[in-house]
Amino acid sequence: MLLPRILTALVGIPLVIAAIYFGGIFFMVFVFAIIMACLYEYGLVLLKAEKPVSRTGLIIFGILMTVAAMAGRLPDMVDLPSNISGFFIALSLFGLFLFEMFSKRPSFERVANTFLGVMFIPWCLAHLVNIRMIEPYGEYFTYILFFSVWANDIAAYAIGCWLGKHRLKESVSPKKSWEGSIAGFIFAIGIAYLSWDFYYPGLTWQQIVALGACIAVLAQVSDLAESLFKRNSGVKDSSGILPGHGGVLDRFDAFLLSAPVVYYLILFMI
User: For residue 80, which phi and psi values (nearest 5 degrees)?
Assistant: First the structure.
């Protein structure tokens, strides 16, 4: 199981780094592709669990929510009002209810599952683009986020397998341990600090340590949130598209809650 994880990482990591490096439309297309793949897997998991969801609504309003999340940054590229985000969110909720009223068997649960999907995935992951577009250090902040999340994941997995004895939340994710969680927390802060020392993206070392700590906590809670979704749906992985890693949603789950919060933390700090 370890070899497929390593081989997938050897292909995926350079792709992510290249997308961050080139930025602009390249990174936007990359994030959009990730969002669409995650939405597809989200709908697939719910259908396997026989839970109501509108897959058409996920795509239509997922695209709208992606634009809504990036609206504050898009005026630099497209002539959109910077305060249009709230309108798009309200329009998505209205649209989902409207679609449901014309369905054969209207279901409030289907609206709830679909709206959660478009908020949890497109709205959150689109903030990766916002972070990349922060001037003049967006590229470096994006590296710090990805490197810290990866350090957290690797350390938590390795130390958890080696020393993990005390379960973190067995009812949500049976294999995660407190030992792995603490190791991930420490390594995420360490990588954030080393990245800051190399790039120096306009923050003090105290701020970057605080940012690394926030990334570690947010990434772990985000991972558990996605695990809760899968466990309640009775599946182990969101899909099997990435050997050794499960699905795209499994690989990017740590960014679901961390991306938007980190974006606004960075704006506050600078």
Answer: -120, 145
